[in-house]
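Bug report (template v2)

What were you trying to do?
Predict the complex of my protein with 6-O-alpha-D-glucopyranosyl-D-fructose.

What happened?
Run completed; filing so the output is reviewed.

Input:
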Amino acid sequence: MTEPQWWQSAVVYQIYPRSFADSDGDGIGDLGGILAKVDHLARLGVDVVWLSPVYPSPQDDAGYDISDFQDIEPVFGSLEIFDQLLAALHERGIKLVMDLVVNHTSDEHAWFQQARRSKDDPKRDWYWWRPPREGMTGGDPGAEPTNWGSFFSGSAWEWDESTGEYYLHLFSKKQPDLNWENREVREAVYAMMRWWLDRGVDGFRMDVINMISKAVQPDGSLPDGVVSHGLYGDGTPLFTDGPRIHEYLAEMNREVFAGRDGQFLTVGEMPGVTIDEAIRYTDPARAEVDMVFQFEHVTLDQGPGGKWDVQPLRLTDVKASLGRWQAGLAEVGWNSLYWNNHDQPRAVSRYGSDAPEHRVRSAKCLATVLHLHRGTPYVYQGEELGMTNFPFGGIGDFRDIESLNHYAEATGHGEDPEDVLKALRYMGRDNARTPVQWDDSANAGFTTGTPWIAVNPNHTEINASAQIDDEDSVFAHYRRVIELRHTEKVVATGDFTMLLADHDQIYAFVRSEPGTALLVLANMSNETAVADQIPDAAEWERAEVLLTNAPSPEPSQPRLSLQPWEARVYRRRTDG
Ligand code: ISL
């Protein structure tokens, strides 16, 4: 790393607007709702807000299907309210990062509407159109140009009867993929990004950005993927970190940011990215993106059958994975740190314990562990309150297209509906999307109307108003870990050394820089544990405790013993 960057000591807070706060009683969160809550964010002490999509959208994929990149969805507000929100955040020293969703558009975007008119429309080549497989009739089973499955079930190709070709959609059929091979597409995207920067935004979180370059062959075809389970082939090797991806990102950086004054943040969401690729993406010398979201630690509880093949999570796997990323990006590049977001189960229900006796302490434990790593931490709305997964019943409780499509497909193939529901309840994205719990009133203070998705019944106990003035709350603990990154240089930029890699209860590591070392000790289990095997145990036992989530151990206990979900940070001055 060359000179220190501002985002190395920053913490980002993600807002998923549909579920954050509703200002007009239609049951859907909106910009006015966020505006009313900016002091919550200021109080927490975050530096940046990442706003999930608020653009006009048919909401087939809850806003990740955009029909106009340069406006605001009326359900969420208007450009005027957006500007007010931006100003209110800036007044409080908080930056705003927009979600950039340019692997695909909505099928209702003007570009696609034009492209689908005819084969020789000037916009036709802005998307991926291909004829049926040689010798087959369009629309017949197996006639798709490749065997790729969509992330949202079914084929990744949709037959367009009127022009007699298929179009590619890696996600829903209402999310056609843009063809980044076409220079006009790239220029239109860069112009749109400049327009938002001119408006005052501070950067972009880039949706599935490592999928924009597809492995197109010299003859224009796209290859089939390997079929390992189910009907469809795995297309991911043919569009993950594809052949021209680094060229595109360097070009984007040049065309959008070069010569612009200000402090910006770019983070690429990159399913399937490897450490070697992440080094390339985030090497400052290459000027592509500042950091990436990698996915390794959020797939450790998934078996060979993929996302819905839920397996038990082992702490040793989590440590091995996050530790590898810490080591991999130690010299060149930078990590993003997250336990959850709008696509993942709630952190405390997955990596912690949402059992009543462990929830609060495990939420604080997770905060301590994540925020003490080297990288830029992301807090997902409600995480700072210790919000949990939702007690979903039947399929009627779910809203997310991914869950609904999977349920229809799996039960259609004869899977037991109860088994399918079991996986959805644990892994489904709706867990993250139930409304933020502001208070203990009927709709948790989220809306005066009928919420678009049910409020978690545990809002009577878990809510912001019960926590913000309570020094023992999860919220107060988040405030402390965020502040620590601002005040302790070693937290932001110190080296990282994993300890006790094979211990199946304790997550332990050291952060160090010349003159200072921190030891982080966390018992990520429901049983007591003792960390006396760590190097220099005697010195650490005498060291100052900088942060803890539990009362001091009884004098009769060894100091390095940890109660269930107890986490402690020690600080020691060193000579070197
Ligand atoms: O949660 C997932 C489904 O298993 C992921 O594959 C997810 O779709 C992937 O992380 C990409 O996510 C992003 O792009 C999607 C959108 O649905 C997600 O909300 C977004 O974060 C398509 O735009």
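What did the reviewer find?
The mean pLDDT is 97. The domain at 106-177 is CATH 3.90.400.10 (Oligo-1,6-glucosidase; domain 2).
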